[in-house]
Amino acid sequence: MIEVRQLSKAFGAQKVLADVNLRIESGESVAIIGRSGGGKSVLLKHIIALLQPDAGDVLIDGESIVRMNERQLLRIREKFGMVFQGAALFDSMSVAENVAFPLVRKKKKYTAGEIEKRVAQALEMVDLPGTQKKNPAELSGGMRKRVGLARAIVYEPQILLYDEPTTGLDPIVSDSIDKLIIRVRDHFKVTSVVVTHDMRSARRVGNRVLMLHEKKIYANAAPEEFFASQDPIVRQFIDGVADPQEAIF
Amino acid sequence: MKFLAGSWVGDWLTGLGRIAALAVEATVSLLTLKVSWRDLLYQIYFIGIKSQSVVIITGGFTGMVLGVSAYIQFHKIKMDTATLAVVGVSMCDELGPVLTALMVAGRVGAAIAAEIGTMRVTEQIDALRTLATHPVDYLVVPRLLASTLALPLLTIESITIGIGASYLVGVYLLGIDPVYSWYNMLKYTGNIDLIFGLIKAFVYGGIIALIGCYKGMSCSVGAQGVGRATTEAVVYSSITILITNFFLTLILQRVATMGL
Ligand SMILES: Nc1ncnc2c1ncn2[C@@H]1O[C@H](COP(=O)(O)OP(=O)(O)OP(=O)(O)O)[C@@H](O)[C@H]1O
Ligand SMILES: [Mg+2]
After folding, report:
1. Do B124 and A101 touch (CB under 8 A)?
2. Does residue A191's CB lie within 6 angstroms of at least one atom of ligand 1?
3. B→A interface, C-beta within 8 Å
4. Pairing with A164, which of A247, B47, B105, B199 sits 20 to 30 Å away (CA)?
5. Is any atom of ligand 1 closer than 6 Å to the C-beta of A11?
6. In angstroms, rounded to a whole number, what is the distance separating the alpha carbons of residues A150 and A61?
């Protein structure tokens, strides 16, 4: 279970989050949407304690992670997998080494054969079979993102955080990634938090949709309810219309 | 303490405090966790290979110029055969460790800061953390260990090349008697000089790796940040090496005279 209480964060003078509250039950799948630069990635990074809040609390399975030091956090982070917006692959390693990294670092030892098999499986799942030997630099942006996804799911964590997993992918691959997220969710009973700009994906992967607006959670509803909402701000976001004064001409 | 905040003294003190914290964290991790030998060997290899050219050139030419200038002075008082003794002592005590460390700081310190800085701006360090890996365990410890082990080795290499080069110049160019000067060198260059040099090299290895890692990990976002981190790593580690050298010499001399 993930619980965020009264979370506030500012970078210098710029306030990004103010009194954000949310609660995500185990096994639940939540889509977070909101405008670009609205603080979605920042919120996600607080959930896994990559950032420390200025005020407020984050609880993972009832345990506050805000005042933990880096070493105590290692134990908490074993529950997590995270897909970064920019993939964040280790560029000194091959694709196979990237995906194998969490398995190699795990306390539970896997044999070389097991690791190889799991890596191949994970790459298969993200539609990139046979790319083991490639370097991250040789991959396209979308392929890198999928390798990042493979690296996050290979060790079957309990909580998966996806930061825009389908942004920049073609519609067919996006569709397969959405299906993969759903499959992972149902198969391993993981808690998933998916930050996305893609309305179709938000509708499909979330049991619930959260909208971040003006530093707060503005809306929190089941997908059917959310997409039927008549609230002007929600409506504007769903339909993707810019404010008149933001028009270029 | 308020007046210190924001001033460069404040920044400097904070930086020093953070580097000390990093050193403590790395030492704790070194003592409690298993080091991956593969990573360590790779780092030693990397540091060694990267430094070969600069170490050979620095060692060789420093030894030669030292030999020539010592010879010019000694020749006036007909003590030609003392030349190598001076070269031996100064290479072991001061020039070997300090110049090697300065050169390695320029190559390896810069490379460490650039590599870790790039990892930071591309969120690879965050990715490490999400994969339940402590960046200090994975990035700092192997580099720190490798650097403290490699620097003494490189220093021995540079001392050897320096003395060898000055021997060649002395004997074949300046016409010093080879047997006597070799004998004098061994007589006046004690084991203690070599031990001093190696202790210093060990410390400078630590300084180079710690400052390089610290600058990389605290690098600000953007390509500019990486560039700055790299330059600062070289500048700060060079300055720190020179300052430390003075105090280390004082301390080691004290310890030596007390001990003997
Ligand atoms: N490390 C940081 N230092 C300073 N400012 C930051 C940092 N990280 C994020 N910000 C700022 O916080 C705000 C929110 O950023 P964030 O990356 O969370 O946006 P986002 O909602 O994920 O946007 P996008 O959809 O474009 O990814 C931005 O204005 C950004 O400039
Ligand atoms: Mg983002």
Report:
1. no
2. no
3. 115, 118-119, 122-124, 126-134, 136
4. A247
5. yes
6. 25
